[in-house]
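$ ./design --mode recover --in tokens.txt
reading tokens...
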């Protein structure tokens, strides 16, 4: 410390007991004694001390999960400190201007992962689509080119908590049709209170609507309008009508907005995936 001309030492309160010895060592060696400050420890949710063995403490691990540096800084600054207002989003420059160590709380601060997730989502949504595309490049499949990535961002931005979430959200765009079909069984296509035969009829009706849509009109708004009208004609709730479509198109029961996803996937690939789903339902109906 003396060789590096350290003037201030800020460390955990668990070092408070050995501070007198350190002060004596500085004096005995003829060095200026730095200013010591001790702050409360960061705690696990069960209020035990965070440690390398029991807790995820490596910043690299959080970066690999897709936590933004600016969100992490904002989160860490609020562990045991408050600006005294209702503000919660602070840029690094503002934190540096507002932070006062005298306002650090005396009690230990709990590392609340849910709070970190919330802040990270706020920071993700604050980025422009172009900025987010740059951040996401390392987290999405290489098969999704830059143009495709930029196109899908409006569909997934609101659904992401971490950048790593994007990989699963966009996977249906680059997966082969057979791989998508392998992800679900016929039961997952069937909405509650419906059966396989009725679901097959509804899905076939949806297919007809898609097939009857010209390539130049194959856009989210047009597709949604056609499918909602078809659902109403069959006496189906829109959500129930959309379920087998969503599973057929993405292979998942939870996905980015359905019709925007269909627009990006394209007419022919949508029809091929619906055909695979109809084939699965046919095996159940015939049984």
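writing sequence...
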């Amino acid at each position: 410390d003396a060789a590096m001309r350290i003037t201030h030492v800020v460390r955990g309160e668990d070092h408070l007991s050995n501070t007198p010895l350190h002060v004596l060592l500085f004096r005995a060696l003829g060095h200026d004694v730095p200013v010591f400050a001790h702050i409360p420890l960061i705690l696990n949710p069960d209020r035990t001390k965070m440690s390398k063995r029991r807790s995820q403490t490596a910043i690299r691990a959080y970066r690999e999960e897709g936590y933004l540096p600016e969100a992490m800084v904002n989160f860490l600054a609020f562990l045991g400190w408050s600006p005294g207002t209702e503000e919660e989003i602070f840029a690094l420059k503002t934190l540096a201007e507002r932070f006062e160590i005298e306002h650090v709380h005396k009690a230990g601060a709990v590392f609340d992962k849910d709070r970190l997730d919330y802040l990270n989502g706020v920071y993700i949504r604050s980025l422009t689509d172009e900025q987010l595309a740059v951040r996401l490049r390392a987290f999405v499949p290489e098969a999704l080119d830059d143009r495709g990535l930029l196109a899908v961002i409006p569909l997934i931005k609101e659904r992401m908590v971490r950048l790593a979430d994007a990989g699963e959200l966009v996977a249906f765009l680059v997966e082969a049709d057979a791989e998508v079909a392998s992800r679900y069984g016929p039961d997952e296509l069937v909405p509650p209170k419906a059966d396989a035969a009725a679901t097959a009829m509804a899905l076939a009706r949806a297919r007809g609507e898609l097939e009857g849509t010209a390539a130049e009109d194959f856009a989210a708004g047009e597709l949604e309008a056609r499918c909602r009208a078809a659902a109403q004609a069959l006496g189906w709730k829109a959500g129930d009508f959309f379920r087998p479509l969503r599973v057929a198109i993405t292979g998942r029961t939870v996905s980015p907005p359905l019709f925007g996803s269909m627009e990006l996937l394209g007419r022919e690939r949508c029809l091929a995936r619906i055909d695979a789903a109809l084939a699965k339902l046919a095996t159940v109906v015939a049984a």
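exit 0
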